[in-house]
Design brief:
177 residues; alpha+beta; Arc Repressor Mutant, subunit A; 8 helices; 11% strand
């Protein structure tokens, strides 16, 4: 597992004292643009050394946050691939079977979900749907976080593995599976 999916979010959050992906993008000098599309949740592009994150304006704020965090992951983890291809357009974004998409999802989960807060909510006996709602993420993003934490030594009984295209559909409720 690429340790940068843990290290980079941790440093960003510590340095800027926020988990808000929009603020982090702004503080990094990245441009976030909202576009009207029905086909994509988002994509990122590097153009003339400027970093752009494009986000579907038709989604809920929750899904826009998740998409922004995911695209931040691409820009910070996969810059070489983006530069070589000049852009990354994700027609079937968040395909967990693709390594870069998996890493971007794990990065996003680490940006959006605080380990301590998550552990506290689990200890309180909340179910995954309630935890996802309280953390303002999709339940699938919560599963990505739990699976990622398991690879770091935790032993959560994860109720399901997210479907490969969980973020590829426009459904964006916190409790959608």
């Amino acid at each position: 597992m690429d340790e940068r999916i843990f290290r980079i979010p941790e440093r960003l959050i510590e340095r800027h004292d926020t988990r808000d992906p929009f603020q982090l993008a702004r503080l990094l000098g990245y441009y976030v643009k909202f576009i009207n599309t029905k086909k994509q949740k988002g994509f990122c592009k590097i153009y003339l050394n400027n970093y752009f994150i494009f986000i579907n304006s038709n989604m809920s704020l929750q899904m826009q946050r998740m998409t922004c965090a995911h695209e931040l992951g691409h820009l910070l983890l996969h810059k070489d691939a983006l530069t070589k291809r000049d852009y990354l357009v994700e027609m079937e974004i968040f395909d967990i079977t693709d390594q870069r998409e998996l890493e971007a999802n794990q990065f996003a989960a680490n940006i959006l979900i605080d380990d301590e807060e998550l552990l506290e909510l689990i200890q309180e006996g909340n179910d995954v749907v309630r935890i996802a709602s309280l953390l303002n993420v999709n339940v699938n993003m919560l599963m990505v976080k739990l699976l990622t934490m398991n690879k770091s030594g935790y032993d959560f009984n994860v109720p399901f593995v997210p479907k490969s295209a969980f973020m590829g559909t426009i459904e964006d409720r916190a409790d959608s599976i």
